[in-house]
Design goal:
This protein has 347 residues and is α/β, with parallel strands linked by helices. The protein has 12 helices and 14 strands.
Length: 347
């Protein structure tokens, strides 16, 4: 059977987990795949384990490169791939048996969708889990293309290793990069972006459509040494720099002035990134009576009820405390602000 899917699996020193991950691929009900494993300079017994799997199953292809990091490994896999569909997989996760079958079926039946993911089961292995657990709950509620489009500035709307997408996206819009932000002059502020989140934002800005199969087809392990916990490219600051770049080069491209939801110190710090790109913040919206009526940096703080009196400028919400996002969404219903048109949540 000719292969239909290339699975891109980068790894480094994964001797403890890779066997289970590869067994989960061998257990897929859909057989027409090849797994391109990019061994990113592993120094443990990873290569021995990979070689054993390759002897038993020719669908595993091992590529060895000097230790260069995940972006180089991912793009190496993409350059080698030749199948019309690309799936992602990590060395410490598990794909359930029907994952590939259901994702390929979805893409083939829905030609308007370019990227499909799925719901995930979170596998905690340590106590510091609340943040990831909340993230999993959130991303598992984002299903439709509209869900992904509206929520793209809140957080990365999909778990990276769950995706399957059409190979033509790479040919049309480029692959992974932390420095693929060159459309405006001062892009250095956003150069250290999380590679997957930057890719999703770039593709969505180009009109690429994302969706999820509303089934749990993936077990995602949150390890203490996961890159998203340890590397500077996955820091909170990096995410906000990435969001800011794609806000100003997307929805805010033709706007000079903006309003901000939230007048707290952290909110203002995040919103202030917009001014690095020449955007002028002209007011804050808040629900805290202690802030309403004040002027912060000469910008008035107003209640939601007075928003109709303000100039018609885009509104960006940086309210990130639990429940605050839905609260502001509910309060703005019936106003001149429509989410996805002139109102965006970015926290």
């Amino acid at each position: 059977m000719n292969k239909v899917i290339d699975v891109i699996l980068p790894l480094f020193n994964a001797e403890d987990t890779i066997a289970d991950a590869l067994e989960s691929l061998r257990g897929q009900s859909y057989p027409a795949w090849e797994c391109i494993i990019i061994n990113d300079g592993s120094t443990d017994k990873t290569l021995e384990i990979l070689s054993d799997f390759k002897r038993r199953d020719s669908r595993f292809k091992i590529i060895r490169i000097p230790h260069s990091g995940i972006v180089k490994a991912l793009n190496t896999g993409l350059e080698i791939s030749s199948a019309p569909y690309i799936a992602r997989m990590d060395a410490d996760d598990i794909s359930l048996p029907e994952r590939f079958a259901k994702q390929i079926d979805f893409l083939q039946k829905n030609p308007e969708i370019d990227v499909v993911s799925c719901l995930v089961e979170h596998n905690p292995i340590h106590e510091n889990q609340k943040g990831f657990a909340h993230y999993v709950d959130w991303t598992n509620q984002i299903i439709t293309p509209q869900d992904h489009f509206i929520n793209r500035f809140v957080e990365s709307p999909i778990v990276h290793p769950t995706v399957m997408f059409r190979k033509e996206l790479i040919e049309n819009f480029g692959g992974y990069s932390q420095n693929n932000v060159t459309e405006i002059s001062n892009f250095d502020n956003a150069k250290n972006c999380p590679e997957d989140y930057e890719l999703w934002l770039r593709w969505m800005q180009k009109g690429v459509s994302f969706a999820k199969i509303p089934e749990k087809l993936f077990h995602w392990t949150d390890r203490t040494d996961r890159l998203s916990r340890t590397h500077k490219f996955y820091s909170t600051e990096a995410f906000y720099e990435c969001k800011t770049f794609y806000l100003v080069s997307g929805p805010l491209k033709r706007c000079k002035k903006v309003g901000i939801c939230g007048a707290g110190r952290l909110t203002r710090k995040r919103a202030e990134l917009l001014t690095n790109y020449g955007k002028e913040i002209i007011f804050y919206v808040d629900i805290d009576p202690r802030k309403i009526g004040q002027k912060i940096h000469k910008r008035p703080v107003i209640p939601v009820e007075e928003i109709e009196k303000m100039p018609d400028v885009p509104l960006i919400s940086y309210l990130g405390s639990r429940g605050a996002r839905e609260d502001i969404r509910n309060r703005l219903k019936g106003s001149k602000y429509i989410e996805g048109k002139n109102f965006w949540c970015a926290a």
